[in-house]
Amino acid sequence: MAFWKKWFEPKPFNEGYLRVSPVHEIYYREFGNPKGKPAVCLHGGPGYRSNADTARNFNLHRRRVVLFDQRGAGRSRPAGEVKDNTTPDLVEDIRRLLDFLQIKDKVLVYGSSWGSTLAMLFAEKYPERVERLVVSKVFLANAENQAWETEYAGWLYPDVWEKIAGRVKGGDSVPQYYNKLILSRERKKQEEAVRLYGSYEFALGSLEPEPNRGEVSEDDINSSKIYINYAAHDFFLKDDEIMKNIRSAENIPLYIIHNRLDLLCPLNGAYRLYKGMKNACLNIVPAIGHGSRQMNREIKKYLKNL
After folding, report:
1. Known catalytic residue: 93?
2. Is 258 designated active site?
3. Is residue 290 flagged as an active site residue?
4. Catalytic residue among 43, 136, 262, 292
5. Gap between the Cα atoms of 42 and 150, Å rounded
6. For the chain, where do the domains classified as CATH 3.40.50.1820 start and end?
């Protein structure tokens, strides 16, 4: 990140680590008004990190905004650790963090991409703790998503997918094969996993896909460890779990924003979610890709008014 961008980032009024298991500590930050209405933001991945700039989307005079890095991700410790790192664990960590911060009021939950998955799962398990939901780049983490990634998206990127799937050996699925590589202790195999399957999502939606990264850093490996391990285990969810349990959260106000041509998470998932909720609004942005400037403007405009 450029120095000037870092300089103008919102500054937290509180930050620290919370031990959530014998293995994991999660890093958290709070921004805005300590007495404001609470909001919690859930980052993408799995395996990415929170971004302080996300807090800028809110009116920080009115809101108390909580960000945290999920298990093994970002500044959470230990980095890249997959032990005791499942979707139910992450959902419980949201509750643990809110309890630790003594946030008893209902919270606005904002999640983007994988964060939208966690937002919906948290709302379904703890609807009494949720004021409203705001989700973008919706990912339901179901068999439909898996089929899109491993079969149908390849129709648009056959050259890219051939390089990834062509290396798979034995009876493993693509995620299972690359999970073995990324979890090995051999740097060459880990870099192969990052450069190929770990980078595939960045190719989707691009007119000039470049899935092969340059130099692979330790952060790249740690991030891909988390993501690929989740993908190899069907994201530790039953198929279509979110939609099957939607009734427990169906009355919570929900705002969905999604690009029309998102080739990583197709619009159908967002549309199904919209149809399954009783108090939902769907904003379809006329843009291509998993994210866009127009989407970011729409998210900020909406959140600033809450």
Report:
1. no
2. no
3. yes
4. 262
5. 25
6. 3-142+239-304
Phi, psi of 227 (to 5 degrees): -60, -50
Considering 50, 220, 290, 292, which one is annotated as catalytic? 290
Q: What are the start-end ranges of the H helices in the chain?
A: 3-7, 87-100, 114-125, 143-147, 158-165, 174-182, 187-195, 200-203, 218-232, 241-244, 267-276, 293-304
Architecture of domain 3-142+239-304: 3-Layer(aba) Sandwich (3.40)
What is the residue-wise DSSP string for 49-74? ---GGGGGGS-TTTEEEEEEPPTTST
Predicted confidence (pLDDT) per residue in 262-283, tens digit: 999 999 999 999 999 999 999 9
- Choosing from 50, 113, 223, 224, the catalytic residue is 113
Q: What DSSP character marks residue 11?
A: P
Kindly indicate the confidence band of residue 5, based on its pLDDT and cuts at 50, 70 and 90. low
Give me 46's structure tokens.
Answer: 């799995």
Instruction: Give per-residue pLDDT as tens, 166-222.
Output: 999 889 999 999 999 999 999 999 999 999 999 999 889 888 887 556 799 999 999
- Tokens matching residue 204: 């989707």
